[in-house]
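[SOLVED] Need 3D model of a two-part complex

Original post:
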Amino acid sequence: MAHFPKPAEGSWTEHHPGLGTGPVSYEDSISPEHYELERDAIFRRNWLNVGRVEQLPRTGSYFTRELDVARTSIVVVRDADGGVRAFHNICRHRGNKLVWSDHPGEETSGTCRQFTCKYHGWRYGLDGELTFVQQEEEFFDLDRATHGLVPVQCDVWEGFVFVHLDPDNTTSLAEHMGDLGAGLVGYPFHRMTQVHRYRAEVASNWKLFIDAFAEFYHAPVLHAKQAVADESRKLASYGFEGLHYEIDGPHGMVSSWGGMSPPKDLAMVKPIERVLRSGLFGPWDRPDIGVDELPPGLNPARSPVWGVDSFVFFPNFMLLVWAPNWYLTYHYWPTSYRTHIFEGTLYFVPPTTARERLAQELAAVTFKEYALQDGNTLEATQTMLESRAVTEFPLNDQEVLLRHFHRTAQQQVDQYLAARGAGSDGHAPASAVSLVAGK
Amino acid sequence: MSRLPPEFADLEPYAGWALRTEAERYAKRLASSMEELQEFYDAAFPRLEAAIEHCDRHPLDQLPEDAQRLLWLCYSLVNVSFPVEVWRQARVPDSGAAQLDLVVEPPI
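Solution:
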């Protein structure tokens, strides 16, 4: 029984004819060879979100990111002109990792006037210029001007810092973010600077966790026990239907209702939620965020019961904007074909009272309880997919974003292989896997 | 020296829950029996509203030490509400191998 209208074609999936409606293969998530292709085809050829401008508050503020999937480490810094720059985190002398503390494999952050290599003391300015060489006269024809840090393309969208590891890239960040990104411009992300960041090492392919958060079909079942019993039964009988789905280039979004913030009936929610007036959808009492109207990309169905919009920005950045004026990001950083690091970050307007702080604490703890359930399910999925006991999987219409996401990832690998083939002997090699089951 | 504000002397037996970080609060939850979690919840939950009002006599960034500890204890109550109100066990059911660490948390 449909509660919300669908496109004229009868389904969200058929609204995008290229997606098909047949069963899909998950071979792309269980193949080490395919993962090696994704590292170059996807992670070295897309804009990647590596942080927020609030992490770089002043000149010389920096942070490093370990981008194992893209075979590098980068350092992102606020330069003397207020701009944000990124460099490969490698000293030009003999290749030592330039910025790290205690453990070379761990990310770090701080503020400095220049970068100094721990090994032989070579120094670099915030603009990447090589400014000092220890015993420079001992070198042979060393030109400092050509030995600066190797830059990485870096740009900022609505306060989100992105890098692109392909030096030949010509797609601007704004172009990459597309219409879905444009529809969010003006949202006051910069006011939401109270941060709770969770991190987990997850034993699944990175795409499986995006799948889990790109559909809400699972929510009434996997998370059934999180609601009070009567409410849980009701939610399960309704199931889940999105208010709206949108697909835009490699990206997608789902808009969802959210009757829990605040609930119509206090009996629907747990005792702690009644006292703290908060829950999964965030604090019920919405902070002032200084805008009269939300940007047009939010609540695209203009539904009075809107609760959250969930954006999948390809390849590994999800952005959830919640009706009660806060947002959440997810990042998925692969470390092998069957492992990745998940980051979930909640951003609130800074609280001014203990009451507001506790409402945010409840939302943050609730997020963790849900995510723990999601995370464990993934490991169970990964191991059974690898059994290959079943190789074809049906996806329903509420899973349209998964179908689109895996198809996009596959297309980028295919394009990469075609270009690589054309560049050598003109013969394009075939991808190791096919997204369509049975092929 | 009392660890909590004098008005909350009744919660002093549970002052061990006044923990600064989420990691400590979550670890204490996992290390406690359901009986211990229930006892803490039963003592602290009816006092939650009064605790908020007490803390909110001060700006959030200027809490006296005892009020800060009371607020930390309230964060623990939030954490413990899940086993008590929902799970009937300390751990999230079916979360066997999963872990999720809070790596950036608010200073207060």
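Edit: The mean pLDDT of chain A is 92.
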